[in-house]
């Protein structure tokens, strides 16, 4: 951790800059809650939040590859099993994840104008912590399997492409072909986006009936993106 302190400090700084940019892009005074199209803007903001937190774990791939020679040398000498290396590495990253996500959520949540309920604030924080942990594990796995930056980057880019294409936001569930629907159901990004959308659009500010509609606006927004409002 201390050896890579520059990386983590840079990530905190980068996250702060991106949070400030996001706050100015999705400023709550410019974002009404009157129509499904208005909800689509909030949905886009939430999707960007998930993607930003997910990609913040990408540095784990390079750091994992950098440490592999030492790991294989010590493993071959029977110093310790693989799990004794992997589990502490995961546990030590949890405080970093809490700081990163806390920094992002505290800066952006109320400025963007998400539901002011503190419970939903904490739920979004917890969800993004899990997303960051998922992303860190995914990138560490890519680094361990690829073993070199070239191979890991190639397969990593392909895996991310599948996640983005089949997460249900870029391409709606109804538009995914039958032979690709399995990718939709196994995509962790889909469950993350669905969860954060439901957390926001189930709030009190989205309970009013949509214009020319028969259901709450929040439910209509979630359904318009092909997600599950009761998830």
From TrEMBL:
Keyword Zinc-finger: no
InterPro entries: ABC2_TM
Domain ABC-2 type transporter transmembrane: residue ranges: 1-201
Molecular function terms, GO-annotated: ABC-type transporter activity
Subcellular location: Membrane
Signal peptide: none
GO CC list: membrane
Pfam hit, one: ABC2_membrane
Keyword Membrane attributed: yes
Transmembrane annotation, as ranges: 6-27, 39-58, 90-112, 124-143, 149-172, 179-198
Membrane topology term: Multi-pass membrane protein
Major subcellular location class: membrane
Swiss-Prot/TrEMBL keywords: Membrane, Transmembrane, Transmembrane helix
UniProt xrefs under PANTHER family: ABC TRANSPORTER DOMAIN-CONTAINING PROTEIN, PLEIOTROPIC DRUG RESISTANCE PROTEIN 1-LIKE ISOFORM X1
Name of this protein: Putative ovule protein
């Amino acid at each position: 951790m201390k050896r890579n302190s520059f990386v983590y400090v840079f990530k905190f700084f980068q996250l702060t800059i991106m949070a400030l940019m996001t706050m100015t892009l999705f400023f709550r005074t410019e974002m009404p809650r009157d129509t499904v199209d208005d909800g689509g803007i909030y949905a886009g903001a939430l999707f960007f939040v998930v993607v930003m937190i997910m990609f913040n774990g990408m540095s784990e791939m390079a750091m994992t590859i950098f440490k592999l020679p030492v790991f294989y040398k010590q493993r071959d000498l029977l110093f310790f099993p693989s799990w004794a290396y992997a589990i502490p590495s995961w546990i030590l990253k949890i405080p970093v994840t809490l700081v990163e996500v806390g920094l992002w959520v505290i800066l952006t949540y109320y400025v963007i104008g998400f539901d002011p309920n503190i419970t939903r604030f904490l739920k979004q924080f917890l969800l993004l912590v899990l997303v960051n942990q998922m992303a860190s594990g995914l990138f560490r796995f890519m680094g361990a399997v690829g073993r070199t930056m070239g191979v890991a980057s190639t397969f990593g880019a392909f895996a991310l492409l599948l996640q983005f294409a089949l997460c249900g936001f870029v391409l709606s569930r109804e538009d995914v072909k039958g032979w690709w629907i399995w990718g939709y159901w196994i995509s962790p990004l889909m469950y993350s986006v669905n969860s954060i959308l439901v957390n926001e659009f189930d709030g009190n500010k989205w309970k009013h009936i949509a214009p020319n509609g028969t259901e709450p606006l929040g439910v209509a927004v979630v359904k318009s993106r092909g997600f599950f409002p009761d998830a």
